Amino acid sequence: MAFSSAAHLHPLPWTSLTKPHYPSFSLPNCTGSIFCNRTNRIFASLSSTDVDQSDAVTKDTSSPLRELCQGYVPDHVLQRAEEVGYRVPTNVQNEALPVLFSGRDCVIHAQTGSGKTLAYLLLIFSVVQAQRSAVQALIVVPTRELGMQVTKVARLLAAKSPDLEQKSYTVMALLDGGTLRRHKSWLKVEPPAIVIATLRSLSQMLDKHILKLDTMRVLVIDEVDFMFNSSEEVSSLKKLLTIHSSINNRQTIFASASIPQHRRFVYDCIQQKWTKADVVHVHVNPVNPMPSCLYHRFVICGKRERHSTLLHLLQSDAPQSAIIFVGEQSEKSKKAGNSPPTTLLIEFLKTSHKGCSELVLLEEDMNFNQRAASLTDIKQSEGYLLVATDIAARGVDLPETTHIYNFDLPKDAVNYLHRAGRTGRKPFSDSKCYVTSIITAEERFALQRFENELFFHCQELLF
Ligand SMILES: Nc1ncnc2c1ncn2[C@@H]1O[C@H](COP(=O)(O)OP(=O)(O)OP(=O)(O)O)[C@@H](O)[C@H]1O
């Protein structure tokens, strides 16, 4: 088994316990024996009564994903999944779905772009009833962008086939920047079956008693480590997990590609009663936390040469679609009235770069409409160069991206992993994707530390 190598670097935002305790092979209150398999899964063994096999009688083997879900997920949802192109389960879906269908709480911990979203959505479709007008599943996401993406996939799967009489699943996106007035009346008149929400919008609805969670059967917290690390969100998150709903009435799923000190996190989940005691940690490919199709490179240059180095890289790589990550502007620079580094870079590329890809900007300081417009531009373009801050580092799924450039080095290994994970997002493709960091000689040490923590090798490019 491999455990988080970044353990010493990260505080434990999810716990207020002062005495660390690391359970080895027995978790307190767990039922059954604990064992690990090749995916480094830690779980209490399932007894035959844990999994309801009564429904799984007819097997249509037309696709392996259907075979895995047959008897749990309604046929028309599986049909939609196949139409969208989901026919073969990814590793994480293979590992997590049997656990999820057994009713266990679960921490899904797997590489970026490995298909965690589809895994928890299929569970939700196996549980919620379309004809019931009540909130039965809640997915909490950190950003509007990720929320829009999850909503899109949920609605694709929920879409009613024209020859089916039955009511379709209703999916509500309750996201920051949306018009909450319309949502209020929707929630009052006919509550949707599935709600996808950012914590701030969700808290508003809960505090005003417009949204009630007493009928909720599945609670998903996506990008869980990010949520617990956000000082603005953590108290609302803990309130949601402990006060607004009871663990006994819901199945709780946490998902992320990075869960620092994951064993401690699982322990705290049980101690704090965020999950039931037999929660399962599905950890796929722990020794290779980034997709293996990623090829990591770095270029050393002086601080003032970064623009010309990036230009050189863009000319030699000629990427059709790439993301260029730029660090956030410091408060000091903002106060001095300087232009943000993202804007300066876009201006530079507009005048110097001769490629035909569309130049697009995505950063926190843009309003929600501008952010949505940027993502629409990307999706409609033949190729793009997205200049972005770390707002684009989590959850954004742009499968056409083949190159990532770290114009500024990310602040830690977890951020490197999520930035790098914006490429290599075609689960069954062999194509190589590139992550290139432009660094100064002094930053080589920091990059080396990321390599050690994330078990990858970065090759130097010499111009
Ligand atoms: N079974 C499947 N077959 C084909 N494509 C899939 C399958 N499952 C997921 N995908 C595709 O893989 C891509 C990544 O999936 P997803 O966004 O769920 O990854 P993730 O694990 O949540 O990544 P991240 O941690 O970066 O958010 C998406 O474009 C999705 O459509």
UniProtKB/TrEMBL annotation:
Alphabetized InterPro entries for the sequence: DEAD/DEAH_box_helicase_dom (IPR011545), DEAD/DEAH_RhlB (IPR044742), DEAD_box_RNA_helicases (IPR050547), Helicase_ATP-bd (IPR014001), Helicase_C-like (IPR001650), P-loop_NTPase (IPR027417)
Membrane-spanning segments: none
Residue ranges occupied by any Helicase C-terminal domain in the UniProt entry: 306-463
EC number, UniProt record: 3.6.4.13
Keywords assigned by UniProt, alphabetized: ATP-binding, Helicase, Hydrolase, Nucleotide-binding
CDD domains reported in the protein's UniProt record: DEADc (cd00268), SF2_C_DEAD (cd18787)
GO terms of molecular function: ATP binding; hydrolase activity; mRNA binding; RNA helicase activity
Location of the Helicase ATP-binding domain: 97-277
Top-level division of the source organism's lineage: Eukaryota
Reaction equations catalysed: ATP + H2O = ADP + phosphate + H(+)
Official protein name in the record: RNA helicase
Source species of the chain: Erythranthe guttata (Yellow monkey flower)
